[in-house]
Design a protein that fits this description.
Blueprint lengths: L9 E2 L29 H11 L1 H8 L8 H11 L38 E2 L4 E2 L1 H7 L15 E4 L2 H7 L6 E3 L7 H4 L4
Parallel strand pairs: 1-5
Antiparallel strand pairs: 2-3, 4-5
Helix pairs in contact: 1-2, 1-3, 3-4
């Protein structure tokens, strides 16, 4: 057993391109869509037609295909129109566990939960891509730099996990960052 006093912080890693839509309190409104969900082919074609493949790539740094969550969200909002209305948040599945923290939706520009929505030149959410989905920028996670403290382990979580209450929770990385954390080069 590991001595909890040896921890200095907790980082949350995630499987990039997986996305979840919640209400304002962090309760899921639909099941998460994983990175390998390829049902959004029609939405990829629609975005290419509306925005242009070159523009999509220039903004997001991602080719137009079914992998980025941008297209998964388009599919979800089309097939579940009730999710396109009302109070909602898109914290991303890796930030979903931290929604009760003081900064519940903080994420990294290089590995945000809905990749394909970040303007990689500006390192900020793309207003035009969010508008294409009918999303307000306030419904997306706050973008923060790597290592930024986004909260602390709360008492209930400390009791459930054995982690120290107040242990800093920091913005982590997606699965490509796991090798770095393991000391692999």
């Amino acid at each position: 057993q590991v001595d909890p006093s040896r921890f200095c912080a907790l980082g949350i890693t995630h499987q990039r391109e997986t996305v979840v839509v919640t209400d304002a309190a962090g309760r899921p409104r639909a099941p998460a869509l994983t990175w390998m969900d390829a049902r959004a082919t029609a939405q990829v074609d629609a975005a290419r037609a509306a925005l242009g493949a070159d523009r999509l790539l220039a903004i997001s740094g991602k080719p137009a295909c079914t992998t980025p969550s941008f297209y998964k969200l388009a599919w979800l909002f089309e097939t579940r129109p009730e999710l396109a209305r009302g109070e909602r948040r898109v914290p991303g599945v890796h930030r979903f566990p931290s929604w009760r923290l003081p900064r519940p939706c903080a994420t990294l520009p290089a590995a945000p939960p809905p990749p394909g929505l970040v303007d990689m030149q500006a390192r900020a959410w793309s207003a035009s891509l969010a508008a294409h989905l009918g999303l307000a920028l306030g419904e997306l996670a706050e973008l923060v730099g790597p290592g930024t403290v986004i909260g602390g382990v709360r008492e209930a979580a400390a009791r459930a996990t054995g982690l120290p209450a107040g242990l800093p929770v920091v913005a982590g990385a997606g699965e490509p960052g796991e090798g770095s954390g393991a000391g692999a080069v």
